[in-house]
Design goal:
- With 454 residues, this protein is an alpha/beta fold.
- It folds into three domains: 227 residues, Tandem AAA-ATPase domain (Rossmann fold, 3-Layer(aba) Sandwich); 145 residues, Rossmann fold; 54 residues, no CATH class.
- It has a seven-stranded parallel β-sheet with strand order 3-4-2-5-6-1-11, sandwiched between helices. Strands 12-21-20-17-19-18 form a six-stranded parallel β-sheet, with helices on both faces.
- Helix 1 crosses helix 2 and helix 12 packs across helix 18.
Length: 454
């Protein structure tokens, strides 16, 4: 695909090139990945300023997002990526492979620093979701802090650099400039810009910014950081659809294909049976979400891949409210067990507290939030944990946030299990004419495939 950057994307790319330390605080949907890859390409092949780049990202993003974006655009085709993921042997092999960009998940940053030490080969480091390095006590921050003098260029990418407090900025900015702007220690930063707030005698539980703190901190960062809000730059409707594709482990894929092919999946103590195309569609959608009802109505957990993706989306939201739509009761129960801070939308009080910004994660079924609910005051982020084949439910549920009175662009994430019926549902939703017959047709094609083989 030919890349035709918006003016703000060209500006952000030039900002990275012109600043050896740069923080891009961009809303989701503005294209921070393609912006950064384009800057890397130019720095590597036009300016000859860098030779090896390290990208640090959340695991799912490291696994699929960066290389998917690279393969998407024609102008990036000459860049080579190596994923430093998996067990130790695979990571070492990936490090030894010849590539331009090496991608590692943030959990292995300490391992990488300990192994390479001062023989650090990367002259540019990109930290995707910089805000995940906001804790100065975390091992990942301490590791990068130690190696920071070896980095020629650093780029930090995030949408919300200070979700909880301006205190969150110190560690992140330190990784950009080595302490030049906000001080070399968190203590000096805190003493200069904050006052003790809640305390018990000599123990301080929280700090509040001094009157001049916000303005002065922002001024200090203005030369190396740029912030962009989606509503200021996107020349499109104020709704951003985002597909979060997850890969199921090979053993799980084999079980899925067996159920799809045979309409039967034997498990340890029970069987999953689909008697017809409609039942198969239902079972496959359940399977894609991670659990399935057996013949006795008991729940059989198959995988947790969507829960992992959900964790990363909530973390990326950095405290901004998230509305989750689930499909089956076992989805709701598993999400409730998995997340500590989730609330199920059940009462008027739940709605009122959501709209007052008092609920960080709200869980509901699309049928329960279909008509008549105004939730737009409480947030702008939707996650579809399980997809629905009903266009009406889908549109009405999204309209709870995507409606008049919403002050921000609505971001709608769809968690999709690759190679499953999720993709059929998403394609049909994209075409705006989903109905049960279309889904049944998709499933029948698979059944027909089995029959043709036999």
């Amino acid at each position: 695909m030919k890349y035709k950057p918006h003016s703000y994307q060209a500006f952000a790319k030039d900002f990275i090139i012109e600043n050896k330390k740069s923080g891009l605080f961009l809303d989701m949907g503005l294209g921070k990945t393609v912006i950064t890859l384009t800057a890397i390409f130019d720095l590597m092949f036009d300016y000859f300023d860098i030779a090896k780049v390290l990208v640090i990202a959340p695991l799912r993003v490291a696994e699929s997002t960066w290389d998917a974006e690279l393969y998407k655009w024609d102008h990036l085709k000459d860049l080579k990526i190596s994923k430093v993921l998996g067990n130790k042997k695979k990571r070492i092999e990936a490090l030894n492979a010849k590539a331009d960009i090496y991608i590692i998940n943030r959990e292995n940053v300490k391992w990488l620093v300990d192994m390479l030490g001062k023989d650090w080969p990367f002259d540019m480091v990109v930290i995707d979701e910089l805000s995940s390095f906001k804790s100065h006590r975390a091992a990942r921050f301490k590791a990068l802090k130690k190696i920071r003098p070896c980095m020629k260029r650093v780029v930090g990418l995030t949408g919300t650099p200070s979700p909880n407090s301006l205190l969150d900025l110190w560690a992140q900015v330190y990784l950009l400039d080595g302490g030049e702007r906000l001080g070399r220690t968190v203590t000096s930063y805190r003493d200069k810009y904050f006052l003790p707030d809640k305390r018990n005698q000599h123990v301080v539980f929280s700090y509040k910014p001094r009157e001049y703190a916000k303005e002065e901190i922002h001024q200090k960062l203005s030369d190396i950081c740029v912030s962009m809000k989606a509503e200021d730059y996107l020349n499109m409707p104020d709704r951003i659809n985002n597909k979060i594709e997850i890969s199921l482990p090979e053993k799980i894929k084999e079980k899925y294909k067996r159920l799809e092919r045979d309409l039967l999946l034997p498990l340890k103590e029970t069987d999953i049976v689909a008697n017809n195309a409609a039942a198969l569609t239902n079972k496959l959608l359940q399977f894609s979400n991670g659990a399935i009802y057996d013949e006795d109505g008991e729940v059989e957990v198959i995988h947790d891949e969507k829960l992992k993706a959900l964790d990363e989306l909530i973390e990326a939201a950095n405290g901004k409210p998230v509305l989750i739509f689930y499909s089956y009761k076992h989805d709701k129960d598993r999400i409730k067990d998995h997340l500590k801070n989730v609330r199920v939308l059940e009462t008027r009080k739940d709605i009122d507290e959501w709209n007052k910004g008092k609920v960080e994660v709200m869980l509901t079924h699309p049928a329960s939030a279909g008509h008549g609910l105004n939730l737009q005051a409480g947030g702008n982020i939707i996650v579809w944990f399980g997809l629905t084949w009903s266009l009406e439910l889908y549109q009405q549920a999204n309209a709870r946030l995507h409606r008049q009175g919403q002050k921000e662009n609505v971001i709608i994430h769809h968690i999709i299990s690759k190679g499953t019926v999720d993709e059929d549902v998403m394609r049909a939703l994209d075409k705006k004419h989903i109905n049960q017959e279309e889904l049944l047709k998709a499933v029948k094609a698979r059944i027909g495939g089995k029959e043709n083989v036999i």
